[in-house]
Amino acid sequence: MSDVEYDVVVVGAGAAGLNAALVLARARRRVAVVDAGEPRNAPAAHMQGFLSRDGMSPAALSEVGRAEIAGYGAALIDARVEHVDPGFTVRLAGGAALGARRLVVATGLRDELPGIPGVAERWGKDVLHCPYCHGYEVRDQPMGVLGTSAGAVHQALLLRQWSDDVVLFVHTLELDEAARERLTARGVRLVHGGIKRVVAENDGVRGVELADGRMVPRRAVFVFPRMVPHDALLTALGCAAEDGRVVTDRTGRTTVPGVWAVGNVADPRAQVVTAAGMGSAAAIAVNADLLDEDVHLAVERHRVGGGGR
Q: For the FAD/NAD(P)-binding domain, which residue ranges apply (predicted)?
């Protein structure tokens, strides 16, 4: 049994979840947002590429977004969702339960970093992932790309737009001749040998040390992490997944009726501005779905009240 009933429960208060809640609350739906307080972008001091919010801190965006949805009457609940029963009953850590006609899951993902010393310590500062998010801020500096996944090749090719001095540390990568030719033609220098650690001094990256003792000076290091969606709630409900991610349509609707997934839990590559747009699109679709149900129930009541006519 639920303690409180809502039209929509949104799980996750990042840009996707908050924007979904904003649109739904403005549509006069009864909305609750439940958030465990573990945003993916917490290590980042700023976010870029979001029109009118360029350079704003993720924490500031969250604070403004929370105030906006609260102003429209949405409930904000700081808690962890432990389980969702079909139907939907959203069960929180501590025993509380929320009833929901529809569910929007915006639980994001976690970045699984390679176990190279120094990477986790500087993550989000000068050990980075997204050139579009951080490339401009480290422009014209000596950059390094750690060859820990196949995505490193594309990263290195792309980063040449921001710096003339880009090194790809081959590490465990197996480069074919075509990749080598593309990298060399693009002006990316290849450094072979295993990586021992990322070296930082005085609160800044200074270089990459190799297993043989060589030190290659760098001021910014990029790495392509393994992105692991926080999709346990979705898969437990039976939402279909392909290639490691939950299947959705363009509005975020999953294969389970009444359940939407938005933001990085559905699209690992979505930036903050993209995630916010996904939340808006899902909210409009959710409201339309609720409207269909409301009208259907109204017609049934009308028929009963009108003697079946």
A: 6-277
Contact indicator for 172, 147 with CB cutoff of 8 Å:
yes
Look up tokens 């079946």; give the residue: 308
Could you report how far apart the first and last alpha carbons of the chain are, in Å?
36
Give yes or no for a contact between 168 and 153, defined as CB atoms under 8 angstroms apart: yes
DSSP string, 272-300: HHHHHHHHHHHHHHHHHHHHHHHHHHHHH
Cβ 196 vs Cβ 169: under 8 Å: no
Q: Which domains does the chain have, with CATH numbers?
A: 4-111+226-305 (3.50.50.60), 114-222 (3.50.50.60)
Residues 240, 246: Cα–Cα separation, whole Å: 6
Nearby residues of 102 by Cβ (< 8 Å), 6 or more positions away: 7, 8, 9, 88, 258, 259, 260, 286, 289, 290
| Closest residue by Cα to residue 123 from 223, 19, 246, 270 | 223
Task: Please tell me the number of Cα atoms within 13 Å of 268 on its side-chain side.
Answer: 18
Secondary element (H or E) of residue 34:
strand 31-35
Pairing of strands 89-92, 97-105: antiparallel
- What is the token pair recorded at 95? 């025993």
What lies within 8 Å, CB to CB, of 88 at 6+ separation is 9, 99, 100, 101, 102, 103, 258, 259
86: tokens are 């079909």
Do 146 and 221 touch, CB atoms closer than 8 A?
A: yes
* Mean pLDDT score, 236-258: 97
CA dihedral sign, ordered 78, 83, 87, 89: negative
List pLDDT tens digits, range 17-68. Answer: 999 999 999 999 999 999 999 888 888 888 999 999 999 999 999 999 999 9
Side chain identity, residue 60:
A
